[in-house]
Amino acid sequence: MRYFLFISFFLMISCGNSSDNSNSNKQESTSSNDTKRIIYFGDSLTAGYGLLDYEDAWPHVLTKRIKAEGYSYQMTNAGVSGDTTSGGLGRLEWVLAEKPSIFVLELGANDMLRGISPSVTKENLRSMIRQVKSQYPSTKILLVGMYATPNMGKKYAKEFNSIYPDLSKEEGVPLVPFILEKVASIRKLNQKDGIHPTEAGHKLVSDTVYPYLKPLLVK
Hints:
Layout: H1 6-10, E1 28-29, E2 37-42, H2 44-47, H3 58-68, E3 74-79, H4 85-95, E4 102-106, H5 109-113, H6 118-135, E5 140-144, H7 154-161, H8 163-171, E6 175-176, H9 199-213
Parallel strand pairs: 2-3, 2-4, 4-5, 5-6
Antiparallel strand pairs: 1-3
Helix pairs in contact: 3-9, 4-6, 6-8
């Protein structure tokens, strides 16, 4: 995997809670008469930090794509810039009030940046997965993975990088191995901060997630 831009990328991803992006910290929902809903639950990567139009964020791009293919889903972008797994766990209950058919979980990067123990991150993610399962047994869950930056050290990186594949196996949920696979090392696909994907970058993030989400869809 491409690691050489990870340090610069992640050094500021947790700063995505800056007030200069009004799209980052508000939950956005589509509306229709359809009862099926996808909730995208994450941090600034999901929120679309820095984009002029929040509808250019990958969750919106992806939902438009699946609708064009004949799938009828509402969506909620529950991305909050700067969020950690602890923060996500704390706000999960009220987000689940929207009764998702599919729950896409993208959190953990900010835990890593803060040096939070991978065991804590893992258990927070596990708690969220189990809470969704308990509250809505029929809801399908997609876990979205992240990698640690090299500057965190080999031991930390090894422990952190194992969180997502281990949880996928232990909890029986599908996994997107690395959300930034197509964009992390390409400058033109990231904003001027060198951190958050551009509109074009978000389209590629959507492409990365799509093949893992599609098997969960029901017409």
